[in-house]
Amino acid sequence: MASSTRLLAASRAISRQSPTRFFSTSSTLKQEATGNVGTVQVQKKPIGGLRGGVVGFLFGFSLASSLAAYHLLEEYQQASAALQASVEELKLSTEKVSAHVRRIEAVEKDLKALSDVSASKEDISRVRAEVKKLYDGLHIEFLDLRSHVWGIQQDLHKLSKESTSVRI
Predict the structure, then answer these.
(1) Residue of 35, 13, 38 lying closest to 25 (CA atoms)
(2) Is the pLDDT of residue 135 over 90?
(3) Alpha-carbon distances of 36 from 3, 41, 75, rounded to whole Å
(4) What does the DSSP 8-state code read for residue 24?
(5) How far apart are CA 161 and CA 157, in angstroms?
(6) Is pLDDT of 44 > 60?
(7) What is the percentage of the chain residues whose pLDDT exceeds 70?
(8) Cα–Cα dist 71/75, whole Å
(9) 27 near 38, Cβ under 8 Å?
(10) What is the DSSP letter of 164?
(11) 38 CB contacts (<8 Å, ≥6 apart)?
């Protein structure tokens, strides 16, 4: 850009010195010379208030949404961990309950086996009646034996009184 300005200044100085017109100072050539000299750098426009506001809003929104997503993910992980712990606790309690049920079933099985082997109330009453009959029979035999022994004692006593007399 500076070179095109120098070229223009030099051509004006030459045109003032001589009344003759050079070929390089014509308007067509000037436009062509300035176009061929180089490219003009476009200055960046400052960011306007509207465009800056939109960019700031989008940046803030994306930042806030990413923070919200991070916190949501963190809460999800905490809830998932709590749920996993609850499931593990439920599994342990279920295993305990199933162990208790198995023990109860084993006790019921043993109880059923014992009830099959043990005597019923009718069996006990029947055995009791038989024992009473045996006891009564033994008691009667005992009384008969006692009366027989008493009779023998009486006979002995009679014989002993008769034989206590002295014979000389």
Answers:
(1) 13
(2) yes
(3) 11, 14, 65
(4) G
(5) 6
(6) yes
(7) 69
(8) 6
(9) no
(10) T
(11) 1, 3, 4
